[in-house]
Write a structure and sequence with these properties.
15 helices; alpha+beta; five-stranded antiparallel β-sheet; three-stranded antiparallel β-sheet; Beta-lactamase; single chain; 330 residues; 8 strands
């Protein structure tokens, strides 16, 4: 199942919006931020954490300090502004998904990638079996667990360890970051086997979209346990704003478009209105916002809302978008 002209329209629309955003970049953009202002916003965000809860299905994540909060803003000109607990390292979890997609687009091309996964949004949770069954085993988009497991299956390498390591090295090189595999987190993830993800992987195999579901699932779990600090996360975001490889700009546009339509799961449409920039979350409390033509905003705050998105991260992104007029729809 591939993509046709109709399904590519959202990406074409996003391309138009991004070009317009770059041409009309306001003085109130990311370059306008200062340290004092950021520190004030961090304090405001910390007042929101009581509205969220820590995830309970991964032991180490359930033990995180709910008061941790870190933010890093990086512009395409190299300006960096950080606040909060900037020395913390955390697993990227689902925030790695856009970069798996980007890696595969750059390495394998669109045809190979979109034979494996779709680009359609969903109103159902990221691990929905109902959605997968309705789609007859077709992984609807790369931000769902089904889509990410399917993409993990086509990462280069003969084993899960090799696939994860090749992705890690590639991202570190391209984004100038220092991702590492958090072995303790991986052990914690595997200590309570996720039956839903096992079922998703087996359905993908039965439907013919992946070959070895055990290797695919192992790879998925490993890449989700790649660990970063807040500056590393911002560097990853810059990779999508200013991709270094020839012809990679087109692939970055696809990834950003899918972050806008799918990156916050069933809440994506709501925050496309409230925030108006491509975003991706992870259940560790990671939140990444990419501002086309300007830079990246990386946030970490463990308490989550009911959809699995960081409460503090969403608050910061919405506040910054409003105050700095970052929305691509301005």
């Amino acid at each position: 199942m591939g993509h046709n002209l109709t399904t590519l329209l959202p990406i074409a629309t996003f391309l138009f919006i991004e070009i317009k955003s770059i041409m009309n970049k306001a003085k109130t953009g990311l370059e306008a931020i200062n340290q004092k202002q950021l520190e004030t916003w961090v304090l405001l965000a910390k007042n929101r954490i009581n509205f969220g809860r820590l995830p309970q299905y991964i032991p180490i994540l359930s033990e995180a300090n709910p008061g941790w909060l870190a933010v890093s803003i990086q512009t395409v000109s190299g300006q960096i502004c950080t606040g909060g607990n900037v020395d913390l390292k955390f697993p990227l979890m689902s925030a790695i998904k856009p970069f798996v997609l980007f890696n595969l687009l750059c390495e394998l091309g669109e045809d190979a990638v979109f034979k494996t996964v779709g680009i359609e949004p969903t109103e159902k949770p990221y691990n929905s079996l109902i959605q997968l069954e309705e789609d007859k085993g077709w992984p609807r988009n790369p931000t769902l667990n089904s889509g990410a497991i399917a993409l993990a299956s086509i990462l280069p390498g003969s084993s899960a360890i090799e696939k994860c390591e090749q992705l890690r090295l590639w991202l570190n090189k391209q984004a100038n970051c220092q991702l590492s595999l958090d072995e303790l987190m991986l052990t914690s993830v595997k200590s309570l086997p996720n039956q839903r993800n096992r079922t998703i992987a087996s359905i993908l195999a039965e439907s013919g979209y992946i070959k070895n579901w055990e290797i695919a699932l192992d790879t998925y779990e490993r890449i989700c346990c790649l660990s970063a600090n807040i500056v590393d996360l911002a560097n990853l975001g810059i990779l999508l704003v200013k991709p270094p490889g020839p012809g990679w700009q087109e692939y970055a546009l696809i990834v950003k478009a899918l972050m806008s339509t799918c990156g916050l799961y069933e809440a994506s449409a709501r925050y496309a209105v409230k925030i108006g920039i491509p975003c991706k979350s992870g259940v560790s409390g990671v939140m990444l916002g990419v501002v086309p033509g300007e830079g990246a905003i990386a946030c970490y705050s463990p308490p989550l809302d009911k959809e699995g998105n960081s409460v503090g991260g969403l608050f910061l992104l919405e506040l910054m978008s409003r105050e700095l007029k970052l929305s691509v729809f301005n």
